[in-house]
Amino acid sequence: MTDTIFGKILCGEIPADFVYEDEHAVAFADIDPKAPVHLLVIPREPLPSLKDAVQEDCALLGHLLHVCKVVAEEAGLDEGGYRVVTNIGEDGGQSVAHLHFHVLGGRTMQWPPG
Fold this sequence. Notes:
Layout: H1 5-10, E1 18-21, E2 25-29, E3 37-43, H2 58-74, E4 82-85, E5 101-105
């Protein structure tokens, strides 16, 4: 599980200040923020990408999205709005092979995003 930066964070090899933590997920600030608020929500169990999810992962995926909502509210983003993004594969911009959701806010987001 320590073959990615997120695995190393989960194992305590790399320090991170969790803003949310439960038995299934953690959330923490991105070290290279793209918005005034940029949090990452990751599952504790490694799942390389959304494309690797199977039917049995539905409860986990729903939980992760709920955690995105919770951390956005705790960061004060719920009134003005925020964006939740997951990158899938190389063309989608995924750089870490561990499913993660970006929660971005604190400014007006642009469209299209990229």
